[in-house]
Write a structure and sequence with these properties.
CATH architecture of the largest domain: Alpha-beta prism
Bound molecules: uridine-diphosphate-2(N-acetylglucosaminyl) butyric acid
Largest sheet: 4 strands, mixed
Shape: globular
Structural class: alpha+beta
Radius of gyration: 21 Å
Mean pLDDT: 96
Length: 420
């Protein structure tokens, strides 16, 4: 197993190219099996989650490969409806195969995702939506089995206790493209990744309207065709580098981004006194003066993303004063707190709010990554800490950040990988 080592205390300065979005690419790759024809998908990051999805597609019988950032998928006529437990169990996002399998084959079997370190992650909304489309759902031997003679468009409300669900909306959107009649999803998730998925589906001949709002309408069609499509930039990777600029008193220009996808973060950075300049596809984040503490609450898009909560917490650890970070999507997503505190931060948890009392400096320490975004927060903390930080269990980071050491080293960090 590898670990990441960081020699902290360096100011980051320069330009970084942001990769394609992992969370857009995963459902888009799954959606490609809605047709037998070939699709070519560009700007797909080279990450462990992406190669897992490609392996699953191959196991289902599709031909699929990635060359650089381009994935080619030719599903063919003989797709199998059972996603293999061995692969599916390593990646929760595999649940987004349910929709396309059900849409194309009218049956799907995918193993039921368990909880994970960011909390319980139920899939009741996915199942409810598929039932509304006419599927019969059973859970047997840990697998979700969905089947239908035919899928019929339906009106449904997909809000849950924590608001909308990104992948439940994606699953129903994908299945409904090949249902008979019109489906309306109310309280649909409005994340940019869903707009991307809708654009991809429409480029295959689907009729999806309203993506990006909370009411999505899908008019079923008989058949979809192959397509060529480019995935949007990764707003979470971009946000992580934006925080890195502020944290290291740096000056970073981010290229290949959609700045408005990061409005919630940019607004908080401005409030904290950080310099923010944006144009159509890039942004420059500059440290200007002592950063002020800001309070953050995570919410569904366009609110502050839960996937940047841990990184923002790292910034607040060295900001003079008190800030309150409240998690409203995954109330237990705070595994990074104890690790940050080992580096000298002063954070304590009150329910689903972290109270951060800023300290003068962090000191490098061996720390343990627990999930993808927590790992990113520890790398950020390591960049500003005095001395050496060893981030163990780096495989979490490899699920979601393409060439992270290379990108950080190119702007002045000192970070490398070592075998444990
Ligand atoms: N929820 C339910 N029932 C459901 C589904 C979700 O109650 O059937 C709840 C969840 O427990 C949570 C909230 O709804 O409290 C939102 O979860 P959502 O379904 O939107 O999450 P997801 O679709 O499973 C995606 C991202 C996550 C990201 C969340 C929230 C992908 C592959 N994953 O997950 O990304 O945190 O949306 O924005 O798109 C990551 O990249 O590190 C990551 C975890």
């Amino acid at each position: 197993m590898d670990k990441i080592v960081i020699d902290g205390g360096r100011r980051l300065k320069g330009q970084v190219e942001i990769s394609g979005s992992k969370n857009s690419a995963l459902p888009i790759l799954a959606a490609a099996i809605l047709t037998s024809e070939e699709s070519v998908i560009e700007n797909v990051p080279q990450l462990r989650d992406i190669s897992t999805m490609i392996k699953i597609l191959k196991d289902l019988g599709a031909r699929a490969h990635q060359e650089g950032n381009v994935v080619t998928i030719r599903p063919g006529d003989n797709i199998n409806h059972v996603a293999p437990y061995k692969l599916v169990s390593t990646m929760r996002a595999s649940v987004c195969l349910l929709g396309p399998l059900l849409g194309r084959l009218k049956k799907a079997e995918v193993s039921m995702p368990g909880g994970c370190v960011i909390g319980a992650r139920p899939i009741d909304l996915h199942l409810k939506g598929m039932e509304m489309l006419g599927a019969k759902i059973t859970i047997e031997h840990g697998n979700v089995k969905a089947s239908a003679k035919r899928l019929r468009g339906a009106d449904m409300y997909l809000g849950g206790p924590f608001g909308s669900s990104v992948l439940a909306t994606a699953n129903i959107m994908m299945a409904a493209t090949l249902a008979e009649g019109i489906t309306r999803i109310e309280s649909a998730a409005s994340e940019p990744e869903l707009v991307d998925l809708a654009n991809f589906l429409n480029s295959m001949g689907a009729k999806v309207r309203g993506a990006g709002s909370h009411l999505i309408e899908i008019e079923g069609v008989k058949k979809l065709h192959g397509t060529r499509y480019k995935v949007i930039p990764d707003r979470i990777e971009a946000g992580t580098f934006m925080v890195a600029a502020a944290l290291t008193k740096g000056d970073i220009r981010l290229k290949n981004i959609v700045p408005e996808h990061n409005n919630a973060l940019l607004d908080k950075l401005r409030e904290a006194g950080v310099g923010v300049e944006t144009n159509r596809t890039s942004a420059r984040i500059t440290y200007r003066r002592k950063i002020k503490p800001v309070d953050v609450t995570t919410l569904p898009y366009p609110g502050f993303p839960t996937d940047l909560q841990a990184q923002m917490m790292s910034l607040m650890t060295v900001t003079q004063g008190i800030s309150v970070i409240t998690e409203k999507i995954y109330p237990d997503r705070f595994m990074h707190i104890s690790e940050l505190n080992r580096m000298g931060s002063k954070i304590h948890l009150e329910g689903n709010s972290a109270i951060v009392a800023g300290v003068k400096r962090l000191s490098g320490a061996p720390v343990m990554a627990s999930d993808l975004r927590a790992s990113a927060a520890l790398v950020l903390a390591g960049l500003v800490a005095e001395g050496r930080t060893d981030v163990h269990r780096v495989y979490h980071l490899d699920r979601g950040y393409e060439r992270i050491e290379e990108k950080l080293n190119s702007i002045g960090a000192k970070i490398w990988r070592e075998k444990e």
